[in-house]
Structure formats: C-alpha cells, structure tokens
Amino acid sequence: MNIIISNASDKPIYEQITSQIKRMIISGELPEGAALPSMRLLAKELRISVITTKRAYTDLERDGFIETVAGKGSFVAGSNLEIIREEQMRLCEEHLQKAVDTALQSGITYQELTEMLELLYNGE
Asked: Which residue ranges does the record assign to the HTH gntR-type domain (predicted)?
C-alpha cells in the first residue's frame, strides 16, 4: 500500500493515513474485500507508532470504509460505495459553503470564485 506521510502537513498522521485509504477505496484502487496490511506492519512500513495506525483503522471502521475481523485482519467493507460518495459530496458542500460565505464577506464575485475553483480543481 502506497501511503505517503508528510511531516510538513498540518494534518495529524492518522488523518493523512485515513484520507489516503479512503481515496484508494472510493477510486476502486482498493476493491471490496481487499485485505489491508496489519496495523503493526503498516506502522513498521511508515515508521510510526502502532497507536497511530490503530486510530486510523478505528476511524475507517467507524466511517464504514473497512471491517475488522478478530484474528484475520482488516478488509475493505462491502458497503454501498454510493453512500460513501454521498458523504464525501456532503463534506465538499460544507467546504464550498464556507468558501462562498468568505467570498460574500470579502466582495469576491461569483465569477472570481468560480475561476479560483476551476484553477484549483485543475491543479493550476
């Protein structure tokens, strides 16, 4: 599993792991039923604490992305990807609402805001 941890990021390490695994599941890179590395193995590969990987796996399980079977390991959940996608859309909507509120308070026009979004979305 290719997970990249950035010490320069303001996100905690467990959140970096969680978001990257979620992205892999949503994109289909990790298909339903795929086994995830054990918490110890992932911690060793990333050179981080097992407590950190446990926190990431706990959050992924809570959010319905993975299932953990005692003695067997953690696997990509067989949940409905449409529900997961809907949750991600809701999160995007929340962030966009904050951006719209900031734009309105700052006098940024709709056209300027959409130009910013287009540049950000296209990686420019």
From this structure: 11-79
The domain ranges of the chain are 13-76, 81-121
Instruction: Enumerate residues 6+ apart whose C-beta is below 8 A from 33.
Output: 75, 76, 78
Smallest Cα–Cα separation from 38: which of 6, 66, 19? 66
Q: Specify the CATH architecture of the domain 13-76.
A: Orthogonal Bundle (1.10)
The pTM of the full predicted model, rounded to 2 decimals, is 0.69
- 55 sits in the region (left: phi over 0; alpha: psi -120 to 50; else beta) called alpha
Place of tokens 């399980």: 61
Cα separation, 81 vs 27, in Å, equals 10
pLDDT digits (tens, 9 = 90+) for 65-120: 999 999 999 999 986 667 777 878 888 999 999 999 999 999 999 999 999 999 99
